[in-house]
């Protein structure tokens, strides 16, 4: 009687490290679209940023203090808590009110105006050129006083995923 062959599934090698030290700072990327989070994450990590992710505004508010980011990017349209309300809550909290915020969305003029009213420091329209994203985050991180400080590591088990 023949033996049934067993196959092993190999995991493809990672194309980039799962945890990248933030030579240029730590960015909290908040977007409900996993593909967009991954796109932003990879582009920022390749440029020397450490990236922590959250899937919506509620998760952002849960991780922001432990993550201690130098910059936060927020999608405008998200479930549970959208980017505009999240930005307003971050600005109302004394611990996060001075963190640079960039809101990212479809690029409608009224969204850009609403983003600035909510306290965003910058607005980036989708679709965006990754180079524009990196440039914007570098500018915001450079303006943040903690950007040059030594960072503490993200607590194990915290959101460092896409």
UniProtKB/TrEMBL annotation:
SUPFAM superfamilies: CheY-like (SSF52172)
Taxonomic classification: Bacteria, Bacillati, Actinomycetota, Actinomycetes, Kitasatosporales
Chain ranges of the Response regulatory domain: 26-141
4-aspartylphosphate modified-residue sites: 75
Keyword Nucleotide-binding: no
Protein name: Response regulatory domain-containing protein
Family annotation (PROSITE patterns): RESPONSE_REGULATORY
Alphabetic keyword roster: Phosphoprotein
Gene3D superfamilies tied to this protein: 3.40.50.2300
Domain of life the protein comes from: Bacteria
A Pfam family matched in the record: Response_reg
InterPro entries in the cross-refs: Bact_response_regulator, CheY-like_superfamily, Sig_transdc_resp-reg_receiver
């Amino acid at each position: 009687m023949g033996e049934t062959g067993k196959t092993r599934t190999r995991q493809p090698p990672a194309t980039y490290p799962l945890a990248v030290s933030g030579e240029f700072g730590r960015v909290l990327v908040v977007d409900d679209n996993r593909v967009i989070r991954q796109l932003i994450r990879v582009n920022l990590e390749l440029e020397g940023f450490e990236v922590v992710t959250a899937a919506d505004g509620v998760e952002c508010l849960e991780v922001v203090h432990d993550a201690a980011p130098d910059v936060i990017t927020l999608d405008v349209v998200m479930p549970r808590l959208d980017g505009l309300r999240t930005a307003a809550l971050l600005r109302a909290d004394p611990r996060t009110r001075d963190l640079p915020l960039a809101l990212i969305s479809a690029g409608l003029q009224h969204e850009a105006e609403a983003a600035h009213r909510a306290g965003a420091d910058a607005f980036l329209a989708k679709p965006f050129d990754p180079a524009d994203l990196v440039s914007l985050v570098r500018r915001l991180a450079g303006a943040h006083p903690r950007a040059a400080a030594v960072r503490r590591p993200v607590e194990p088990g915290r959101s460092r995923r896409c």
